[in-house]
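re: the backbone from monday

yeah here it is again, tokenized this time
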């Protein structure tokens, strides 16, 4: 019986999945890269959907630049740079990447609202289009162009 139990435990331990810290660090970094890539994709999609609303686009770009500054500052709050002898150990790159991914995914969720739109009845939706307007952008921006006509360049 002891032999079977020993054999079973040995077999389980050799078949179990293990990673080095380097592998875990790289996995976390790649996970962040995937989130960052998704964020860029969502951002570009918003730019396409709202391309005719130049004021919104200008404000979105400003917001995204400020968000990146906020994210980077938040990373420094969570993991201050104490210099060469930092106290975080070999897990630091993994933890850094996972936290940066978490912040990025929160931003993705926030920005996705501009892709899916908001219901017609929400009077506080601001610049967010409705799902219908997202599917029919020409109709959505007719009013905007009426209220804020673009200046026509004089031809010489």
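seq for it, each position gets an aa:
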């Amino acid at each position: 019986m002891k032999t079977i139990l020993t054999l079973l435990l040995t077999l389980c331990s050799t078949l179990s999945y293990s990673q080095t810290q380097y592998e875990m660090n790289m996995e976390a970094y790649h996970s962040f890269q995937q989130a960052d890539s998704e964020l860029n994709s969502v951002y570009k999609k918003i730019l396409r959907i709202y391309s005719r609303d130049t004021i919104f686009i200008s404000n979105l770009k400003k917001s995204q630049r400020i968000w990146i500054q906020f994210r980077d500052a938040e990373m420094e709050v969570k993991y201050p740079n104490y210099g060469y002898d930092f106290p975080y150990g070999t897990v630091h790159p993994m933890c850094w990447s996972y936290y940066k991914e978490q912040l990025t995914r929160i931003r993705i969720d926030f920005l996705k609202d501009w892709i899916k739109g908001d219901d017609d009845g929400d009077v506080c939706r601001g610049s967010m289009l409705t799902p219908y307007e997202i599917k029919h952008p020409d109709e959505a921006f007719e009013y905007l162009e009426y209220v804020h006509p673009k200046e026509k360049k004089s031809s010489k």
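The chain is about 70% helix and 0% strand. The mean pLDDT is 86.
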